[in-house]
């Protein structure tokens, strides 16, 4: 890819903050065309679905809040049993049996909550906020499951006459699986939580404990290398957390997914506790050395995330929710603060075009689909202006050639829509209305490498084409369409100093 049209990883943050301010919302649309006819009726969630998810999230959230009290009860009971172990072993009905029963009841409730969330995840198409909430709750429930198992193990050790392990490390917060460039900062942060069954007075001084991050392979072996990570040692804070920000991967993983492993150590570098890796919930990274490896690396992460334990098929709805999450991540967006998500009708288009409306998605179908979506995601992530144009709906994107013909069928000559080419992954196509001897028709122009490159961006190319006059802009996240004069909305992206201001056309 031409270096002049690549968005450098290191400078993106500042530009991303400006994206929401780049589009002039005061530009007047064409008064005679007004809004284009609606091609799709947006499938809003039915009240019953909204109510169900709201109630589910509320119920799970309430249980999670109550579990913090359970944790205190576990700690208190373990300490009481430890203080007079012979008495409690002789009188198990007093404290040991009730505690064991509580472990089982809490584990059952946790499993039920996890299963209900997983059921919703494969039953309903989620909004980005729903996806975020589900992931957040699932991560917390998974940690609760590990915590219950930890205290069960501590009780068993006491009853056997052994000493307590005393400490447990949990991954409280982590980013979605993503691709990392060697020597570049790992996106987002990791928050590690320390849980202890010992009284604080028996804990080592906070200064004596630190958490160390390292990279482990899929086989759960440490990555070989003198230094795999930098900025990877953090002290435990007073609230028993270690927050990792600014870590860098110093070696390539050779296109293989790896996960981060965290160890609690003391001054003597003795490991006191470590995190567990569960491929169902823990994220992974692939460390690459150049941009040409990005599509393949991200595709491997999607396969790993969607087809856990080499599952051959997964439900379409679950797959759609997972792909949506990955797509937002790859386009540098956050699930809670996004500029443009994938709309329901766009998911319907993808489901029909690449999966034949099948209720199940096979590994082969997913691989074929990624050969198209991967280059699209790569263009959105790296090419200059493309992400901004996509965010503002100036690139319609996910629409078929046939639907563009319906959309533009009754529009004036020169009206056009920018979409992703269905036949050439990563390329753009322009569907536009033109006049022929047979009347006004919709034609399609493939924008290839001779049209855009190091010296000409997509906006520069569109500027030079007189047949493209009026751009149909999609209103992100609502599906509405409005026509603008081309220069009125694209001039701010033109490379030349002299720009065309563009005025609304009246009549």
Tell me what the structure shows.
The protein is an alpha+beta fold. Helix content is 39%, strand content 18%. It is built from 13 helices and 18 strands. The strands form six sheets. It has a five-stranded mixed beta sheet with strand order 16-15-14-17-18. β9 and β10 form a beta hairpin. α2 runs antiparallel to α4, α2 packs parallel to α5 and α6 packs across α9. The two termini are 43 Å apart. The N terminus and C terminus are likely disordered.
Low-confidence stretches: 1-23, 31-42, 498-507
User: What overall geometry do the principal axes of the alpha carbons give?
Assistant: elongated
Mean pLDDT: 87
How far apart, in Å, are the first and last alpha carbons?
A: 43 Å
Overview features:
five-stranded mixed β-sheet; single chain; 39% helix; four-stranded antiparallel β-sheet; disordered C terminus; disordered N terminus; 507 residues; alpha+beta
How would you summarize the topology of this molecule?
Elements: H1 12-22, H2 47-83, H3 85-90, H4 96-121, H5 128-159, E1 167-173, E2 178-181, E3 190-196, E4 210-216, E5 229-230, E6 233-235, E7 241-244, E8 248-249, E9 259-265, E10 271-274, E11 285-288, H6 294-306, E12 313-315, H7 316-330, H8 344-355, E13 360-362, H9 363-382, H10 386-391, H11 401-408, E14 415-420, E15 428-436, E16 439-447, H12 458-464, E17 470-474, E18 481-485, H13 486-490
Parallel strand pairs: 2-11, 14-17
Antiparallel strand pairs: 1-3, 3-7, 4-6, 4-9, 5-8, 9-10, 12-13, 14-15, 15-16, 17-18
